[in-house]
Amino acid sequence: MSESQTWDAVDDYFRTHLSPDDEPLQAALRDSEAAELPHVNVTAPQGKLLQLLAQIQGARTILEIGTLGGYSTIWLGRALPAEGRLISLEYSAKHAEVATRNIARAGLDKLVEVRVGPALESLPQLADENPPPFDLVFIDADKANNAHYVEWALRLTRTGSLIIVDNVVRGGRVTDAASTEPDVRGTRAAIELIGSHPRLSGTAIQTVGSKGYDGFALARVLA
Predict the structure, then answer these.
(1) CATH number at residue 148
(2) Nearest CA-CA partner of 186 in 151, 139, 144
(3) Measured between alpha carbons, how far is 103 from 108 in angstroms, rounded to an integer?
(4) What is the domain count for the chain?
(5) I need a labelling partner for 65 at 20 to 30 A (CA). Which of 114, 131, 162, 196 fits?
(6) Structure confidence by residue, pLDDT tens digits, 167-208
(7) Structure pTM?
């Protein structure tokens, strides 16, 4: 068995026993596949981790930057209380349309709002609404703007909020200080911002699994 096959088998084992997909989650993946959305959604174990983090946090308000087909949105939305709120920002109108259907099928359309447009345009508009601080922010959009998204997350959160940045390993390329690739530069900027910002305490974890060699950063807002 190859290394990647082993990772897949372990993920399948964990998913079967700890984070099984039910019909709405499976349908979200099927519809995303049928609509030819990129195959970059979180895995089931990663989705369950997001849900658990939101529940441990006691999150009542969640901001997601990057909706795709709504698979991670469903995991996060299920962590919210009945009066909770999740706002998800998605660049692509096509992706947002697929996600909105998937979210409604999961029975979360009363809790979740998908907003379409470039996140760096949607975020100032959201800030102008003066919403209650978000308890958790999940960043999983274009990696070139990761540091900007972290900065906006800081503006829209409170002491004790969690900020999660997905896909920070970039296949190991994150260590290349000389890289000119936008995803690497943006991710490095986000990691270094988290590490140096006086209002943040964070770490990053390398992972392996069905998505290959990957990882995420987790930061807590201090003040």
Answers:
(1) 3.40.50.150
(2) 144
(3) 6
(4) 1
(5) 196
(6) 999 999 999 999 999 999 999 999 999 999 999 999 999 999
(7) 0.97
